[in-house]
Amino acid sequence: YITTPHPQLNSLNLSKREIADALNIKPEDIHHDSDLALINAGLNTLIVPINDLHSCLSILPDQAGLKFFCLNNNIDIVLVFTGEVADKNNQYRTRVFAPKYGYLEDPATGSGNSALGYYLLNKGMWNGGRLNIEQNNSYDSPNIVKLNTINKQGEARVIFGGAATVKIDGCYLMGSA
């Protein structure tokens, strides 16, 4: 497990409509009873609660448009999540979009899920014990990120970890034409 930096809750002056447009979803796909948040636990992470697993897995933002949105709003990554999961051994499903860094989606993100951990703690949606999070857009083969907390200087600090399986092994050969 890796300990995240002390979290910072940043002000968020974006509407659900603006965020939905940036993600290429309908505003009603964003959970109406849950708050949006911008939390930094290593990266400025926009936390967006989504209604259900199908809606979460169906999100396909335009990479250039989302990058423009992130750059203009001081957002490093966008994490969408739902409490509906494919495997009942897990508690949440997330997807993390990182177009600011040159790719659309990160398949397993410790800092993003750590920001979600702080969000869940602050909302009373997690007691700080072991938490398994499914991440990516595959229903059948999600990556699993594990969260827990430790007491550090009198406060709960989120830690993250997991395990990896090699799916493809090889070398890139680059040449000039």
Poorly predicted ranges (pLDDT <50, ≥5 residues)? none
Oligomer: single chain
Can you give the mean pLDDT?
93
Question: What fraction of the residues are assigned to beta strands by DSSP?
Answer: 25-35%
Counted beta strands: 10
Whole-angstrom Rg: 16 Å
| Backbone shape | globular
Helical percentage: 10-25%
Distance between the termini: 44 Å
Q: Helix tally? A: 4
Structural class call reads alpha+beta
In this structure, how is the largest beta sheet organized? 10 strands, mixed
Helix and strand sequence:
EEHEEHHEEEHEEE
Sequence-ordered SSE layout with sheet pairings:
Blueprint: E1 2-3, E2 8-10, H1 16-23, E3 37-40, E4 44-49, H2 53-58, H3 63-72, E5 77-82, E6 92-97, E7 105-106, H4 110-122, E8 131-135, E9 143-152, E10 155-162
Parallel strand pairs: 4-5, 6-8
Antiparallel strand pairs: 1-10, 2-3, 3-4, 5-6, 6-7, 8-9, 9-10
Describe the structure.
This protein is α+β, with helices and mostly antiparallel strands and 177 residues long. It is 21% helix and 29% strand. It has four helices and ten strands, in the order ββαββααβββαβββ. The protein has helices at 16-23, 53-58, 63-72, 110-122, and strands at residues 2-3, 8-10, 37-40, 44-49, 77-82, 92-97, 105-106, 131-135, 143-152, 155-162. Strands 1, 2, 3, 4, 5, 6, 7, 8, 9 and 10 form a ten-stranded mixed β-sheet that branches. A hairpin with a 7-residue loop joins β8 (131-135) and β9. It is globular. The protein starts with a strand and ends in a 15-residue tail after the last strand. The relative contact order is 0.17.
